[in-house]
Structures are given as C-alpha cells and as structure tokens.
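Priority: medium. Attachment 1 of 2:
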C-alpha cells in the first residue's frame, strides 16, 4: 500500500479521470500476502492464492451421455437399420467390467461407464426394441453420445488459477476433481463508518434535523460480496479530531478503511483535514458523477501499519456509484483477484441528456425490451444523488463516456446492471 500516495490530483486543479484512478489502483496496490487453506464449504467469495491442478481427469472414465444403447460403430450397416442383440444392462455406478461383444448392444444409462469395445451410444428415443434385440437407425456419427475421460479437464491440468474469485461454479469443479480444500488469500479486513452530526442509527430516537444512516448498511451489503470481514465502527461526529483518531485507530487492524460523508468542501466536511494528519491523499477530486468528490489515500496507524482509505460521498447514490467504480477495483486488487471490469451491454437511450466533458457520468435507468429485441433505457425521473428510490426503482446505470456532452434519444450507450456492477 505504501505507494498509493500521490499528489498531483490531491487538492485543487483538474479532476482525475476515472481511468487514471483505476490505473493507479492496479499499479500501486499490492494484494494481501497471507494465505490459508479452507475447506470447500468455506471457499465462496475467496480468492485463489495459487494455481491448483486436477488430481484426476474429469470425467474419470469414458461414459454415456444419454440413456440408450451402446454399440460398436463398425458393426452398423451404413445406410439401413441394424438389429443388435442386447446382451447386458449397465446403470450409472455399475458395470465397469462389461465388454461389448461383436454384433451386440448394451443397454446403458447416463453416466454409466462405456463397455469395453463400445464407442457410440444411441438415445433410447431413436431406437426400436424388438424382443431381445434393438433396431437402430443409420446415420449416427462414430463416438456420438459418448463422453471421453478427461474431456472436461485432464489430470494435471490447472483447474483453478491464482486470482480466481471463487463462485459456485469454481467450487463445483474443485469438488468434481476430488479436492476438499483450496489455497486462498486471507480475507480482507475492512472498517466502515459513517460521518455526520445529522446521521443516527436506524431505530434510534431521531431529532427533527436528523436522518437515519443508510450508508453503513449499503457498504456492509456491498462488501459482503467480496468475502471481506467487516468491522462496523458506527457513526462519527463531524469533528476532525474524532475522525483523525478513528482513522488512525482503524488503520492498525484493517486493510481498508471506508467512510462516507464529509469529503466535500462544506464547513463541516472534515475528512480531508483529518486524513492530512494521519496519512496522505492520492486523489480527492475524481471525474465521476454522481460521486465527485471521493477521496482515496493511505492512513498510517500509530504502530506503523498502513491501510488504504476511501472516503465516499455522503449522498447514498453517490456512495453506491463510487463504491462500484472505485472501491470494487481497489478491493479486487487488495484481494489479489483477477476480475475484469464488468462489460457494459449496449442499449438505446430513450431520453436526451446533457453533461460536462471530462467526467464519466452514471445515469440510473430502467430497461424496456423493444419489439426488435433491443433494449430502451429510460431515465429515472429523479436524478438527485440522495434519492435512494432512484436505485430501488431502476435496473442499473448508463455509463456516459468522459468526452460525451450530449446524449440524444436513439443513441447507443453502455448499460451496467446492478448485478454486474456489484458482483
Ligand atoms: P456529506 O457528504 O457529508 O456532505 O453528505 C451529503 C449528503 O448525504 C447530506 O445530505 C447528508 O445528510 C447525507 N448523508 C451523509 N451520510 C449519510 C448516511 N450515512 N446515510 C444517509 N445519508 C447520508
Ligand atoms: Mg456530512
């Protein structure tokens, strides 16, 4: 983390382009080094610390892909039906020693081992049973409906590579090749707190000028998808000394300290000053809307440990968007995960919109499927950065490029679903 200090975009001057912020994160943040081995049932959302090879081939033996009749293709008449005597019956989990005699067929079921000598399987729907014989049609290719040993993955090949963020499908593959545990990097430790004299805990007594805290709940849920251990440090007052002490204290025990509120230039926005006393800022003004300003930097604890810091804006929609575009890549980098940025889907704008050059803008939209199969993007009527219902009533964000100044109806533009943004 040491190198995440920079200066050029830290205070006044130009907005740092989002691409530049992402590049800094990729180049300067090192993943946590400690690793551990965890059982499969605890591996979801963890990040592979090393390549793991398949101890056995998958499938481990040639087997039938269908319920039907296993035959030797060379026994078949090329352009007419062939009648074959059914000699054996092989169920999945049985019949590993069965051999197919010449001119015969074996009744076989999905997953059962191919009898020695058999190379092709007819689906039961495609044949006619005639007493002890089965009559098969012409035209089936050799090897049809047979699954070869190792066609999924061969023993010794890399099944899961270092950097993989483990999901259900990866854990299934590990189980299928007989692994019981996986080497992963340790969980990230993330501290979160909200700031603001007006912010109170949901359910607590609320004074006439207070609001309930949405952001800690937002951040906690978004962090849960990255396998982090989250320390909830509560709500802090708008007091630079209180904030500085909390930042310094949290830096000793966490990889990342994530706050919301207090990063703009209002008189009660003290996060920047608080950070100045306990660490350094990498950027503060970022070319993103909603979201500017968002602060990123490094905090030094009293004991000399370092933690990354991101100060998100207080408005919940701005916190949401900046989490998706700044915190997510930072978390993935800290976690050692190789996870590409979500790929926007091309949709058609159904509204006009003006924006400033030099910042990436995210517009909350609902999608409507058109008769031609394309999708129209319809803007939510409210675009204030504090309107939480604009997130709950839409499907995702349109991503308007830094250079764009005007969006017109009918223009194609990239859409990121909430699921893609946060996954
Ligand atoms: P700030 O970034 O501190 O200037 O806050 C911007 C706006 O977001 C203000 O209207 C705050 O009241 C609101 N806000 C700040 N923190 C939270 C929070 N934790 N939950 C909901 N709204 C908040
Ligand atoms: Mg505030």
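Attachment 2 of 2:
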């Amino acid at each position: 983390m040491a190198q995440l200090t920079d200066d050029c975009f830290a205070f006044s001057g130009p907005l740092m382009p989002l691409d530049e912020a992402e590049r800094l994160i990729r180049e300067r943040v090192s993943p946590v080094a400690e690793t551990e081995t965890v059982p499969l049932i605890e591996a979801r959302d963890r990040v592979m610390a090393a390549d793991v090879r398949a101890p056995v081939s998958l499938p481990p033996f040639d087997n039938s892909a269908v319920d039907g009749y296993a035959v030797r293709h060379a026994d078949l008449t090329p352009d007419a039906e062939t009648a074959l005597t059914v000699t054996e019956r092989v169920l999945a989990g049985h019949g590993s020693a069965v051999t197919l005699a010449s001119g015969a067929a074996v009744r076989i079921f999905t997953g059962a081992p191919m009898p020695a000598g058999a190379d092709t399987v007819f689906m039961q729907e495609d044949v006619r049973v005639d007493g002890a014989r089965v009559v098969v049609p012409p035209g089936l290719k050799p090897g049809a409906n047979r699954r070869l040993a190792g066609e999924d993955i061969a023993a010794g090949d890399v099944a899961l590579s270092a950097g993989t963020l483990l999901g259900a499908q990866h854990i299934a593959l590990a189980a299928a090749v007989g692994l019981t545990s996986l080497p992963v990097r340790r969980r990230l430790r993330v501290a979160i707190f909200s700031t603001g004299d007006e912010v109170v805990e949901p359910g607590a007594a609320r004074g006439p000028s207070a609001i309930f805290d949405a952001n800690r709940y937002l951040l906690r849920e978004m962090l849960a998808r990255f396998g982090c251990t989250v320390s909830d440090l509560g709500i802090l007052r708008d007091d630079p000394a209180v904030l500085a002490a909390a930042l310094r204290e949290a830096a000793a025990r966490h990889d990342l300290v994530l706050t919301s509120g207090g990063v703009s230039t209002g008189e009660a926005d003290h996060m920047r000053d608080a950070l100045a006393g306990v660490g350094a800022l990498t950027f503060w003004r970022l070319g993103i809307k909603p979201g500017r300003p968002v602060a990123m930097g490094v905090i030094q604890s009293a004991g000399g440990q370092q933690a990354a810091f991101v100060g998100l804006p207080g408005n919940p929609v701005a916190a949401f968007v900046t989490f998706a575009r700044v915190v997510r890549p930072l978390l993935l980098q800290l976690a050692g995960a190789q996870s590409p940025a979500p790929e926007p889907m091309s949709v058609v704008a159904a509204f006009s919109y003006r924006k400033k050059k030099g910042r990436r803008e995210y517009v909350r939209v609902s999608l409507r499927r058109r008769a031609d199969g394309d999708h129209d993007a319809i803007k939510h009527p409210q675009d204030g950065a504090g309107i939480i219902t604009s997130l709950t009533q839409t499907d995702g964000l349109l991503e308007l490029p830094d250079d764009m100044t005007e969006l017109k109806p009918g223009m194609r533009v990239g859409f990121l679903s909430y699921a893609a943004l946060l996954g």
